[in-house]
Amino acid sequence: METIVIDNGSYAMRAGFAGEEEPRSIIRSVVGRPKHAHLPIVFNPNEDVFYGDDAYNKYQILNLTYPIKNSVITNAKYFGNTYTSFDDMEGLWNQTFVTDLKITPSDRSVLLSECPFNPVETKSKTAQLFFEKFGVKSLSFKAQQILSLTSTGRHAGVVLDCGLSASWCVPIVDCECVKDSIVQTQVGGRHIDDYLVQLLKERSKYTYEDPLGRVTRDIKEKLSYVSTNDNVDEKSISKEYELPDKTSITIGKERYLCTQPLFDPALINIEGDGIPKSIDNAITKCDNDLLQMMYGNIVITGGSSYSFNGLMYKLQNELTKLAPPKIKILCQSDPNTSLMTWVGGALIACQSSFSNIEITKAMYNEFGVSLFTKK
């Protein structure tokens, strides 16, 4: 049976089968429980927990929890310590298996994406859940950035992973992260959303109530871009956007101004370097004989990067100014950056070497969670 591949993202989880070209399931990484115990849930009267879009669409009557932050399952506890993030994840994974993939996970192999610095405690709890609750045959973990790089056919390079809450610059050699060289910047897609709202409100254009940020994200994904020219005539770039209440707003320079915190985090009161300098710092932390290879294999991925038209072009220009003379800079990406991690996992799980990273049920039964201090 095909290995199940799951990319656990802060914004969404993507799941499917090894060897396929795209995931069969994409579910928001959110869980909802009723705000008031006496409140009737007219949609599914026999349920009291809702997952993914089902929870998101009922936000007015549910308390929403987000169990993944910065690509790591949190240790949060909710509602008087009644529930934890792992309770949420168990429900999300179970819905993915049963409802979306229409399988039982027992006696299946599973590959999970993870953050490069995934805590041992988190991996141990995850393994315990998959082996003892779901009964999987084997479990494997692989860094999201390695999987994204693999989706491009590369085994080495540096990956810029633009996530929901942060962006990672991760050098990779022989399909392994160079952990001492990883650089993180605290600007992600959510910050761009918030800054876009701020810019629109400053010009008295935006009064629409958007508690979940759906409209803001839609504006960003359809209209925002990264500019190399701040002196553009605003009329030439202005676009009309129709709000759900059928009123319209005109969006001008906000289209590109909202993306500037990627290059200058101080605009939103965040300390640290922008992504060009962060990439340069990550590369220069590597051995000198790797510099040309790294600068020539920069891969942009992450769910928050696909909406930023022009990002690759400006990034290449900025890195040319930072890199040593005569170094060739090459930035590349995929048309659908949000799926690159999952696609890379679907490829790796088909390789003959995949068994080298698998932890089998027999190994877990013998050594328990101590395995994750070794692998």
Q: Overview of this structure, please?
A:
With 375 residues, the protein is α+β, with helices and mostly antiparallel strands. The strands form six sheets. Strands 3-2-1-11-12-21 form a six-stranded mixed beta sheet, sandwiched between helices. It starts with a strand and ends in an 8-residue tail after the last helix. It is globular. The protein has three domains: 4-144 and 339-373, 2-Layer Sandwich (Nucleotidyltransferase, domain 5); 149-187 and 273-333, Nucleotidyltransferase, domain 5 (2-Layer Sandwich), CATH 3.30.420; 189-262, Actin, Chain A, domain 4, CATH 3.90.640. The model has no long low-confidence stretch (mean pLDDT 91). The chain has helices spanning 53-56, 85-100, 120-133, 144-150, 189-202, 214-223, 234-237, 254-257, 275-284, 291-295, 311-322, 340-348, 361-367; strands spanning 4-8, 12-17, 25-28, 31-34, 50-51, 62-65, 68-69, 72-73, 77-78, 83-84, 109-114, 138-143, 157-162, 167-173, 176-177, 183-185, 239-242, 248-251, 298-301, 331-332, 359-360. Helices cover 31% and strands 21% of the residues. Helix 4 crosses helix 12 and helix 9 (275-284) crosses helix 11. It is built from 13 helices and 21 strands.
Do you know the CATH architecture of the largest domain?
A: 2-Layer Sandwich
State the end-to-end CA separation. Answer: 25 Å
CATH fourth-tier homologous superfamily of the largest domain: ATPase, nucleotide binding domain
> Which geometry do the CA atoms define?
globular
Computed over alpha carbons, the radius of gyration is: 22 Å
Oligomer: single chain
Average pLDDT reading: 91
The secondary structure category is: alpha+beta
Treating each run of at least 4 consecutive H or I residues as one helix, how many helices? 13
Strand content: 15-25%
User: Numbering strands along the chain, what is their spatial order in the largest sheet?
Assistant: 3-2-1-11-12-21
CATH class of the largest domain: Alpha Beta
Which consecutive residue ranges, at least 5 long each, have pLDDT under 50? none
Total domains, how many? Answer: 3
SS elements, strand count: 21
What does the main sheet amount to? 6 strands, mixed
Helix content: 25-40%
In the CATH hierarchy, the third-tier topology of the largest domain is known as: Nucleotidyltransferase, domain 5
